[in-house]
Amino acid sequence: MLTARGTLTPTTRPGVTAAGAPRQAPARVGSWRPNLLEVARPRAFITGITGQDGSYLAELLLSRGYEVVGMVRRTSTINFERLAHILDRITIVSGDLMDEASLARLLQQHRPDEVYNLAAQSFVHTSWEQALLTGDATALGVTRVLEAVRLVAPEARFYQASSSEMFGKVLEVPQRESTPFYPRSPYGVAKVYGHWITVNYRESYGMHASNGILFNHESPRRGLEFVSRKITHAVARIKHGLTDKLLLGNLDARRDWGFAGDYVDAMWRMLQQDQPDDYVVATGTTTSVRHLCELAFSAADLDWQSHVVQDPQLMRPAEVDLLIGDASKAKRVLGWEAATSFEQLIEKMVRADLDLVAHQLR
Ligand code: NAP
Ligand code: F7E
Questions:
Q1: Is 334 a member of any domain?
Q2: Looking at residue 295, which CATH number applies to its domain?
Q3: What is the domain count for the chain?
Q4: Cα(249) to centroid(ligand 2), Å
């Protein structure tokens, strides 16, 4: 049951005190029944709310009765496209992963029950071009958020956006929570740091800190630079006669691609558990970039081979050849499994991009 300030009736669940020592923390699953007449809503703080996952997570949390506070970094143009439809229902605050003081100030002001750290330099290709920035934001940024939580909001539960990129040159197929990491990019290396510092804060301070090891997840809101969206957007532009060619790199890479809208539900479920832990979130299927092309082009009645051109410049210095996740722990403990198939996902993305390009042409 909820109490004032959105926390929940204490049970025997371990958490942390302001000093970082173990305490009795609240339970949510099962007893999560707000009495709207007398209780405040639980409050979530999301870093990276302007990103793909941030927008889906904000929607999900609003639908579950949360107050949502989203941190955005200062930019010279406003960047709320993915949030436009919910902007009047969330609180936007200004801060940056690079600036620990801003994180501490925001957490002190807003006193969240749950902190979702989704912000990162998340594009693998860029991580070779900006390796230091990637390390600063994607690795050290996690410590900055954890320190701020520990110092000013130690009762808050913490989610870290870990990644299947940590498995890299995979040492086991399929990859599960116990599979050793072998990252293949500065991004993957930074995520390994973020993962282990989250485990370390959990073990050092008794914090309720969990890692979601999410495999690739896509949507119509995916950034245009990622391969799935690059392809579906190009399909739409080709269909509407705006271009004829699509340059791609490695067509043989295989990924376990799911729908972002499904995956944010797994994040939320992790923070409702009595115990913090780490979970693989994946579909359990794998597909090549080549097959993604076939499906996306055929969804618009096009032949991919007439349009796709391989460009050696788009090959990566070190590649992750094969990812396929075993999400059986997430299914067993969280009751989570992917609801959207790869075929449904690509169909959805192609339809959305056809509509988007048609709309832009009007
Ligand atoms: P995304 O669309 O690239 O969003 C990244 C977010 O981080 C954006 O809101 C961005 O803000 C923000 N950000 C970047 N640097 C920041 C900084 N210095 N301070 C504050 N905010 C900053 O990524 P996503 O696909 O939603 O992924 C969410 C998280 O999950 C990321 O940590 C990513 O690495 C991880 N992940 C993603 C996948 C996947 O397949 N999508 C899989 C595993 C893990 P701007 O809008 O201002 O750029
Ligand atoms: O590449 C190949 C490329 O950039 C997928 C991020 O969300 O998921 C994402 O990282 C594959 C790679 O995603 C092009 O070489 C071929 O093998 O869509 P991507 P990613 O690198 O897997 C993980 C789990 C994350 O955590 C990351 O944040 O596609 N590929 N040709 C290409 N990739 C791109 N981007 N562009 C191409 O032209």
A1: no
A2: 3.90.25.10
A3: 2
A4: 10
pLDDT of res. 40? 87
Q: For residue 250, what are the domain limits?
A: 227-255+286-322+340-361
pTM summary value: 0.92
279 CA distance to ligand 2 centroid (A)?
Answer: 21
Clarify whether 165 is annotated catalytic.
yes
Please check whether residues 242 and 181 belong to one and the same domain: no
Cβ(65)–Cβ(41) below 8 Å: yes
Average pLDDT of the segment spanning 28-55: 77
Provide the b/e sequence for 111-144 (b: ≥16 CB within 10 Å): bbbbbbbbbbbbebebbeeebeebbbbbbbbbbb
Q: Same structural domain for residues 31 and 60?
A: yes
Confidence band of 108 (pLDDT split at 50, 70, 90) = very high
Q: State whether 17 and 35 are in the same domain.
A: yes
Does the annotation count 163 as an active-site position? yes
Residue with tokens 């990129």: 165
Catalytic residue check, 187: yes
161 lines ligand 1 (CB under 6 A): yes
Q: Which of 59, 67, 100, 165 is catalytic?
A: 165
Average pLDDT over residues 95-108: 98
Helix axes 227-239, 342-361, angle to 10 degrees: 50
Q: Report which residue type is found at 18.
A: A
Task: Find the mean pLDDT for residues 108-119.
Answer: 98
Residues with CB under 6 A from ligand 2: 122, 124-125, 163-165, 215-216, 225-228, 230, 248-250, 253, 255, 289, 314, 316, 319-320
